[in-house]
Amino acid sequence: MMGKFRALPARAESPMVLSEESATLEEKSEESSPLPEFLENSEAVGALKSVLQQKLEDGEDGEALKVLERIVSAQPEVVEWKFLMARLLGEMGETDRARDVFEEILASNPLSFEALFGNALLMDQCGEGDAVIRRLEDALRTAENENKLKEARDVRLIMAQMQFLRKNVDEALRSYEELEKEDPSDFRPYFCKGMIYTLQDRNEEAREQFAKYRERSPKKFEVEGFLQTPLSRMKLFGTDSES
Known about the structure:
Elements: H1 15-30, H2 36-39, H3 42-57, H4 61-74, H5 79-91, H6 95-108, H7 113-125, H8 129-145, H9 149-165, H10 169-182, H11 188-199, H12 203-216, H13 223-227
Helix pairs in contact: 1-3, 3-4, 4-5, 5-6, 5-7, 6-7, 7-8, 7-9, 8-9, 9-10, 10-11, 11-12
């Protein structure tokens, strides 16, 4: 499951240090008061992420969720924690709760890439494919009406992904090709086309797409993690990943 939580920064901490941090965090989580003062410290936040990652690696999803619930309560304005909680709830099979979290994010930011994409995946898993498309079309109209070109492009990327999940492979590829022509510097369509070609055993074409992707992608992006994750569940690239 860690393929979907690779955004958590890994730190080279000894087991003893992590154990001490975990104990401190658990003490804070068990207190009746929230954690805002503890979380104001950047080092404490880094330690917290390390503890969360350790719990996820150890398969302690329930414990990780308890920690995230307390953190979200303490820092409701920090969307990163809500994203993590929604993704974890989804992995735990708590689909309705995960969707509620994504909807809460979208209520304040209707064009949030990660919330739109995460919610679309969950809707599709629930058999709401047609509703997904309508939801994304509404988001696209909003972005275009507000002249938010980057957000509109992001929504179209999600729509192409949903086309693929609905087995409209040719339509998905056409969408990626249109996006590629409009902005050849964007690495995301090349990567997505490469993934589709790989799944179709069109290996030579896949290599060509991945080569184009590598020429354009930010060095910080780790392709290996996405290649190990099924295309139907992988997290697409948001605007924060663009160079």
